[in-house]
Amino acid sequence: MTAAGPGAVAALQQALAAENSAVYGYSVAGAHLSGARRAAAVRDWVGHQKSRDDLTAMLAASGARPVAAAAVYQLPFSVHNAAAAVALVTLLEDRLSAAYLGLVGLDDPALRTFGARAVRAAALRAATWRRSTLAFPGLDVPAPPSPGPASQGSGSPAPSGRAHGKPTPSQPG
Q1: Which of 22, 46, 119, 151 has the greatest number of CB atoms lying within 10 Å of its CB?
Q2: What is the pLDDT of residues 102-125, one digit of tens each?
Q3: Are 59 and 13 in contact, with CB atoms under 8 Å apart?
């Protein structure tokens, strides 16, 4: 990709923001997992780092300035155990599917293919963590399983933000 229109750049930036959020979220979740689940989380975390780097390179090649990762991201709920960690990474994968759908709707066949493959990969990871599938990955993003106020990775209350279940990446906190 050498030149991208504003729509393509915006879709790439959205996917990059979702990958940045996933890298952060997997680091939080991984601290609460062990054994095979931890190994899977590490594999996925490394994969998200690679995807983040690929998106960064694509944006730079198009002449756009890639959005920088935040130092910390607001989590949709507290993560203090393995069940919450699995719920978090599942939600992150669902949100990644939604973010990559922005690329699927573009005119550029290469970006459409890239986006479709990324939606598929995120949906498969989510299905693995969830142990079930969604009818329409990226469109059918369920609300987080833990009710109550959002919290940051430290467990302290976070400012109120987006409604739970919105198909967008976590917001910088």
Answers
A1: 22
A2: 999 999 999 999 999 999 999 999
A3: yes
